[in-house]
Amino acid sequence: MRNVTLGSTGIVVPQNAFGALPVQRTEMDEAVRILRRAYEGGMRYIDTARAYSNSEEKLGRAFGDAWPDDLYIATKTMAKTPEGFWRDLDCSLEMLRRPYVDVYQFHMANVVWRPGDGTGMYECMLEAKDKGLIRHIGITAHKIGIAEEAVESGLYETLQFPFSYLAGDRELALVELCKQHDMGYIAMKGLAGGLINNSRAAMAYLYANPWVLPIWGIQRMGELEEWLSYMEDTPVMDDEIAAFIEAERASLSGDFCRGCGYCMPCPQGIEINNCARMSLMLRRAPSASWLGEHWQVEMAKIEDCIGCYQCQRKCPYELDTPELLRKNLQDYKRVLAGEVSVS
Fold this sequence. Notes:
This protein has 343 residues and is α/β, with parallel strands linked by helices. It contains 14 helices and 10 strands. The strands form 2 sheets. An 8-stranded parallel beta barrel has the order 3-4-5-6-7-8-9-10, surrounded by 4 helices. It has a two-stranded antiparallel ribbon with strand order 1-2.
C-alpha cells in the first residue's frame, strides 16, 4: 500500500482511509472496536461529520483518552451562518475529545464561500485556523460545477467529491485540476453508494490514481477486514480488472441514480435516493429486505408524486428523477408479482 499526500496540507497517509458515516448505525461498543481496529490495521485518516449523528462521539470514545499523533481526523459543518459554524465546531471538538481538527470541511456545499462575500463563513474558517482549532480548510460537494469552482478559487486545501470507476471524463479532469492546484482530493462513494460490489476492482481503480485518497464507508468488522487486507495485498489494475470495469461501465451506461441524496427531502416523503435506484439495488446489492414490508411501503409513496420537480432541479447529475421513480416502481411491482426474477 502506497502513501498519498493530501496536496498542500502535507498530510501523508496510506491510500486506504475510513469513512465514518456508516458507524453511526453501529452499536457504540462495536463501533469503538471497529475504529480501534482500523487504526491497528494501518488506516491513518478518518472522515466524519457533525451531521452523522453520533459518529464523532464514537471516535471520541475510541481515541479520546490518548489520540495517536499519526491519526488524522476530518469532520464537517453544514452551517450556513457564522453562529452555526462555531456551534458545530465547538460540538465536534467536544464529541471528539480533541483540541483541534486536522481537516475541517464545509459539508455538501452548494456555494463556494469566499472572503468578503458578506456571509462571514470563510472568515470563520480563517479564525478557527488562526486559533489552532483546525489545521486545514476543506470543502465537500456533490455538484461538479461547485467542485470545479472550489478548486479554481485557490481557497481550499482539500476537496471531497464522489469518485469511482464509474467516473466520467469531467470527474477525471477534476482529479487533474486538483493535482495542478496542489489540492488534496478525498474520494467519497468509491462504491457508488452500494452499486459497486467488487471491492478489489474498486480499490485497484482508486489505487491507480495516486493523487486520490479514498474513504471507504464502513459499518461492520467484516467490511473493515476486507479493506485492511488490501494494506498488504493491494489490488492493482490488470487486464482482467480493466475488462471487468469496462463491462460494469457498459451495464451502467445511461441515466441512473447515484444515491447521493442531494434531491432530498421530498415533499411527499419519498426516499428518493433509494427508491429511484431500487431496480439496480435489487440486482446489484441483493437483499431480501428490499422486498420486505418496509420498502414496499416506501416504494408505494411514489404513487403520491405530485410532479413538483424539486428533485430534478436539485439533482447534481441533472436526471429526470420523477421518471426514474416511475420506472423503478413499475419494475418493483413486476418483481413482487414474480413476473421478473432478480436472483
